[in-house]
Design brief:
alpha+beta, five-stranded antiparallel β-sheet, 21% helix, binds guanosine-5'-monophosphate, binds zinc ion
Amino acid sequence: MENHHDCVFCKIIAKEIPSRMEYQDELCTVFHDINPRAKTHMLIVPNRHVATVNDVEVIDQNAMGKMILLAADMARKFSISDYKLQILVGKKAGQEVFHVHMHLMSVP
Ligand code: 5GP
Ligand code: ZN
């Protein structure tokens, strides 16, 4: 797996720092947000380091598609029928971690 040394999500993917990981395969990893803003708040990420959606390349399309399938899988696993999926792109949008990630947040 490609690992960017200063990237916290690359370190989580590589299990160099701990997380509450729910799922990992060759393309994607799912772990719980350290600062949850919903009863269930997970982050779904491609294993390959890509800073923002603006940097996604054709080689990333399988991982990007898999992220949607994983969102539905996780929602089923956690019995969440309604939820929000959010991808922030860029600092002004509020992106803080520059490794593409999709928030999965349950709604009350
Ligand atoms: P962003 O604003 O970039 O879309 O969201 C980044 C998210 O990553 C935030 O919700 C934040 O709580 C989460 N986060 C930041 N650092 C860590 C970490 O070390 N571990 C985990 N599990 N989540 C993190
Ligand atoms: Zn990264």
